[in-house]
Amino acid sequence: MESVQGEMEIERWERSEEISDAERKVIQETWSRVYANCEDVGVSILIRFFVNFPSAKQYFSQFKHMEDPLEMERSLQLRKHARRVMGAINTVVENLNDSEKVSSVLALVGKAHAVKHKVEPIYFKKLTGVMLEVIAEEYADDFTPEAHGAWTKMKTLIYTHVTAVYKEVGWPQYPTATL
Predict the structure, then answer these.
(1) How many CB atoms lie within 10 A of CB 128?
(2) Residue 134, Cβ neighbours under 10 Å: how many?
(3) Cα 106 vs. chain centroid, distance in angstroms?
(4) Burial class (CB in 10 A: 0-12, 13-18, 19+), 163
(5) Do the Cβ atoms of 59 and 114 come closer than 8 Å?
(6) pLDDT > 70: what percent of the chain?
(7) Among 12-21, 151-160, 163-172, the least confident range
(8) Global pTM value
(9) Which tens digits make up the pLDDT trace of 122-164?
(10) Are 147 and 30 spatial neighbours (Cβ–Cβ below 8 Å)?
(11) How far is 131 from 151, CA to CA, in rounded Å?
(12) Nearby residues of 91 by Cβ (< 8 Å), 6 or more positions away
C-alpha cells in the first residue's frame, strides 16, 4: 500500500494543472511584494531548506559544512545562489502568460541541475514546498487561501517542468521512499 501511495503522489505531482488568468494575477501580485525583498527572502528560503533538508547541502561545496543558520545568512555564496534562484522564479512569474518561455527557463534550470550538478530531482519538490512556507509566513496578509491555491499550482508547474527535463536526459527514476 505504501508504494502505491507514493506512486500516486508522484503521478499527482507530475501533472501540472492549468493556471487561470485570475491565479496568474494573484501570483504576480504576491510575487511583486516578495521580489521587492528578493535577496532576503531568497536567503530565508535557502536557510530553511538547508536546515530542514541538510542532505541538500552536499551539492554546494562552498557551504555544505555550514550548520549555523547565522553563518549561512552571512555567506556570500549562499546569497549569490539565493539571488539566482529568485531571479529564475521571477522570470517564470513574469512570463506565466508565455508557456514557451516558462518551459525554456525551467528546462535550463532542470538540465543544469540534472547534468552538471547531479542534484536529485526530489529536492525541487522540497525547495518549492519551503518556498511556499516562507512566502506564506513572511507575507501572511497577502497569502490568502486564493493565493495559496494559485501558488500551489505554481509550485507544481515548476516541479513538473524541471523533472520533465530529468526524464529527457535519462535520469534514473528516483525511489518513492524519499518522498
Answers:
(1) 22
(2) 20
(3) 10
(4) buried
(5) no
(6) 87
(7) 12-21
(8) 0.85
(9) 999 999 999 999 999 999 998 999 999 999 999 999 999 999 9
(10) yes
(11) 10
(12) 101, 105
